[in-house]
Each structure stands twice: as structure tokens, then as C-alpha cells.
Amino acid sequence: MKAVIPIAGKGTRLRPHTHHTPKPLLKVAGKPVLAYLLDDLVELGVGEIVFIVGYLREEVEEWISAEYPDLRAHYVLQEVQDGTAGAVALAEPFVDEDLLVIFADAILEVDYGLTATLGQEYGAVLWAKEVEDYQRYGVIVTNDDGTMRTIVEKPSEPISKLANIGLYYIRDHDLLFEGVRQALASEPGPSGEFYLTDAFQYMVDQGSRLVTAPVEGWWDAGKPETLLETNGHLVATRRGGVDASATLEGTEIVEPVRIEAGVTVRDSRVGPNVTIEAGANVESSELANTVVGPEASIRDARLRDSIVGGHVDVSDFSGALSVTDHSVVSGG
Fold first, then answer.
1. N or C: which end of the chain has fewer CB within 10 A?
2. Is the pLDDT of residue 237 over 80?
3. What's the domain range around 182?
4. Residues 215, 294: one domain?
5. Quick check: 148 and 141 in contact, CB under 8 A?
6. Residue 19 exposure: Cα atoms within 13 Å on the Cβ side
7. Number of helices (H) and strands (E), helices first, in the chain?
8. Single pTM value for the model
């Protein structure tokens, strides 16, 4: 089984952090978003992945090569950002077996074991989750047996609350790419893009059975507020703790937190839902619902709902910040 991961987007909702860092490499609970996904795939036994790249492609490729040297990676440039169907179409020359298609905007907790137990009567699995704000998503309308009847992008009426989360296992890959070509030959959607979901609709219309599967956890990291929520979830469940080499003096810790190696915190209150990355220094400050990058310095500050890049210097400031690497913020 292979995987296709489109990561060509610019991550505009996460600016300024994505001006110099590709969105998939932004960290949540001290680890790049893409790393959570790749670790799951390596554990599953996926050894070959097609990455659809674009914005800041060199940084992405260098990171993957350094962190996952045993991975057989292919990189295909998406020169025109024409949507999800256009991205996946570029992977077709590399696909000759079952595949996973994954959009790397979230931390996913799913049962990948379904790929080994799926009945032969099904052509694909679409993982989905019920949501209340269904208008933001493509939603799946199902038949009584849980198979897909149709997908509707951002419906105005509550025809379904079963959101398409961007994770798919495709057994009938030939039919998928037929559908992709059909989608690209049609008129683009309102945003001027071509949607992969139209290819799934084509598969269903041709008689393929696409079954939906539940999601144990789906933690969005595609915009600042959800990235912070995801950080809070991860430090509370599997990435929390204080490294033994961290120095804490006169400090109150409000769990959950993640404090990494070499961090110094003095006369401060830290937490809840805070990550402080390696080598950072915090003095006489209060941090809540905040991510602090490596080697940052924070003094006499009260930060909440903040994303602070690496090597940032913050002093005498109170409020919410979103500043990228090597910034200086002073309220004095």
C-alpha cells in the first residue's frame, strides 16, 4: 500500500508563521504536524509516499529526507493550485496498488487496521466525523448500510452532519483516477478549484461502494485557534510533562503542560495547555493556552491564546500574540 499526501498549499490562515515555515512543519506539542501522520504510516507499514509539493517545497523535502531517511519518497510539483482533484491527479504515475490519500491539516486518531479487513465488496473507505458546524465542510450523505450516497460541499441546509475529514483508503484506484479526470474535465467549483470529492461521486455513480468509517480523534491544526486547541489536547493526553533537564524555580505549573529540555522558568505561572520548546527562557510571566518556540525569551509578560516563534524576545507585554521566529515584542 502506498500513500499520497498533498502539501502544496501556502497555509495562509496560519500567517505569519507560514511565511518561512511550511504549514505541515508547524509544531503542535513540540512535534511537526506532518510527523504525527508519517509516524502512523510507518507503523502501518507504508514505505512509499507521493508528496504533492509546492510552497516552500525545499524545506519540506529536506526535512523529510533528514527525519525519515528510510522512506521511499516521491515529490511532484503542483504548479497551479487548482484544488484537491488537481493535486491527487499528479500522483497517478506512481500509483499501481491500494493507496491512502491524506490531507495533512490535522492530527488524526483512526483505526488504520480497516485497510486490512475491508470487505471485497467495497471500493474505498472515507473516514468521517459528525460535526455541528457542518456548513464549513464537505458532508457525506449515506445509505442505511453506511455507504456513501453523495457528498455535498459546505451545505446551507442540514442534509448531513457527517464531515469528510480528508482521509481515504482507495482500493479501486483505477476508478478513482477515472473520476479525477472526469472532475478535471468539468467546470470548476465556485472557488475555481476542482474537488476530489467529485471523483468519489463518480465512483459511486459507476457502482462502486464507498463505506464511511468513524474517527476516534480529529484535531485540526489549520488555523491559530484550532492549533492551540490541538496542542492542549496533545499535552493533556500523550505529549505532556516536564523534561528532567528543565529548570523550574519559584514557578506554579497548571497541568497540562509540555516543558522541553533545557527550558528555564523562574517566578512564573505556566499552564494550562502550554508547550515551551527546548532552550526557552521564561521569567516573571504567566502563560496559558500558548505555544512557545525554541530558544525564545519571555520576561514580565502575561500571554494567553498565543503562538510565539523560536528565538523570539517578548517583554512587558500582556495579551494574545502571534509572532514568527526572531521577532521582538516589547510593551515597555
1. C
2. yes
3. 2-224
4. no
5. yes
6. 9
7. 7, 28
8. 0.90
